[in-house]
Amino acid sequence: MILGIESTAHTLGMGIVHKGKVLSNIGDTYKPRNEGIIPRKAADHHAEKFAELLKANLEKAGVRMEDVDAIAYSEGPGLGACLKVGLVGAKYLALKYGKKMIGVNHPFAHIKIAEGISGISNPLILYVSGGNTQLLMEKGGKFRVLGETLDMGIGNLFDAFGREIGMEYAHGAGLAKLAEGGKYVPLPYVVKGMNLSFSGLLTQAGKVWRAGRSMGRPANEVRTHGKRDVAYSLFETSFAMLCEVTERALFLTRRKGVIVCGGVAQNRRLQGMLRSMCKEDGVEFGVAPDEFNRDNGAMIAYAGELIMKKGMRKPEECGVDQDYRVDKLRLH
Ligand code: FE2
């Protein structure tokens, strides 16, 4: 029985997993208004919610802390202040109840739960979230980065544009709703081999939107129209870029399946584009349900259970690594 604790960014998530089965997965997300994530405020949120979420998860799973065999926590990458709340909470529980701990790489957890749920082994992996955009494959117990963003993560592209157009809770899901029914406006498309760049796309999207505002038509009508079209085009352009690099990697690696994971993998348009690409190319496509693509504790517990044999450590040996890229991980 593994208790998982996730605290890399704006979500404090907890979950309990036993032999690959998710018994609970309850978390809470800090939602900044009119600004990006302030690490200190997110960390305060996590500290405030810690006890309440632990109780909720134990109740949902129908277990006591005494039944838990080990505590898995997010070791990184992430915001230092947020990671430390998860670490300290995990250490406190481990010392109080005499448990071992397992440090889990956050992208590894997203990947493994998506693989487990979709049943696709050795897939090509597209990992897309706020801070990360990577195309990966696992070989010989190591992850290789085949391609990645050269500047910002794709989720941050949507959040930053959402803030620019004045959304109170700037988030990809809200922007995707706004984009429904928009018309396509050409925006910069930047793919370099299997790498991607989003910063020029963000700058140009802002310029197109501001130009739309000053066209002298009734203000409300023009603004709504402009926002919708630009948001729609931002999704279409960036997702097409993701599909191009994924397809190129697919032909190079000859993998038989593709999984998409991470927060942005919840987007139905992205799922649809990848699914039709995989169908055309005759390979499998897999994606986990939304609760495992947003940051969550169950995936940390699930991944912790997979690496339990090698990964168990005493609380005093545990720390965090803000820059813990998945290609630093060694599984064998
Ligand atoms: Fe994540």
Outline of the structure:
This protein is of the alpha/beta class.
Characterise the protein shown here.
With about 325 residues, the chain is an alpha/beta fold. The protein has eleven helices and 13 strands. The chain has helices spanning about 40-60, 80-95, 105-120, 155-165, 170-180, 200-215, 220-255, 270-280, 290-295, 295-305, 310, and strands spanning about 1-5, 10-20, 20-30, 70-75, 100-105, 125-130, 135-140, 140-150, 190, 195, 255-260, 285, 310-315. A six-stranded mixed sheet has the order 3-2-1-4-5-13, sandwiched between helices. It has a five-stranded mixed sheet with strand order 8-7-6-11-12, sandwiched between helices. It starts with a strand and ends in a 19-residue tail after the last strand. The chain binds fe (ii) ion. The site of fe (ii) ion (FE2) has 6 residues, from helix 3.
Rg over CA atoms: 20 Å
Number of domains: 2
Shape: globular
Order of helices and strands: EEEHEHEHEEEHHEEHHEHEHHHE
* Bound molecule types: fe (ii) ion
Q: Count the beta strands.
A: 13
CATH superfamily of the largest domain: ATPase, nucleotide binding domain
- Provide a count of the helices: 11
- Tell me the name of the CATH class of the largest domain: Alpha Beta
Task: Provide the structure class.
Answer: alpha/beta
In terms of per-residue confidence, which ranges show pLDDT below 50 for 5 or more consecutive residues?
none
Major sheet attributes: 6 strands, mixed
Q: Give the rounded overall mean pLDDT.
A: 94
Instruction: Note the gap between the termini.
Output: 23 Å
Strand arrangement across the biggest beta sheet: 3-2-1-4-5-13
Estimate percent helicity.
40-55%
| CATH topology term of the largest domain | Nucleotidyltransferase, domain 5
Note the beta-strand portion.
Answer: 15-25%
From the 3D coordinates, which CATH architecture of the largest domain would you assign?
Answer: 2-Layer Sandwich
